[in-house]
From TrEMBL:
InterPro entries: LSm4/Sm_D1/D3, LSM_dom_sf, Sm_dom_euk/arc. Residues 3-75 form the Sm domain. This is U6 snRNA-associated Sm-like protein. It comes from Aspergillus rambellii. SUPFAM superfamilies: Sm-like ribonucleoproteins (SSF50182). Keywords: Nucleus. Component of the heptameric LSM1-LSM7 complex, which consists of LSM1, LSM2, LSM3, LSM4, LSM5, LSM6 and LSM7. Component of the heptameric LSM2-LSM8 complex, which consists of LSM2, LSM3, LSM4, LSM5, LSM6, LSM7 and LSM8. The LSm subunits form a seven-membered ring structure with a doughnut shape. GO terms for biological process: RNA processing. Its main location: nucleus. PANTHER family: SMALL NUCLEAR RIBONUCLEOPROTEIN SM. The keyword Nucleus applies. It comes from the Eukaryota.
Amino acid sequence: APRFVNGRSRHPMLVELKNGETLNGHLANCDNWMNLILKEVVQTSPEATVSFDYQRSTSEETISNTYGFLRRLSKW
């Protein structure tokens, strides 16, 4: 995995997809091609104006190269 992601397993991450959706979850795994696997994911649509417009997932979500922004969150 890329160096800035290496060793960040179980840390909270924010991923912004190219379509504007955001995913907040905990990093489970990342490969050399930056395909991410997140756990405990909250997905928010780009049109969300209130905090109730999201989907929560308790399973793992695999995200391949469709994201445009990745940030490690210091606090959840």
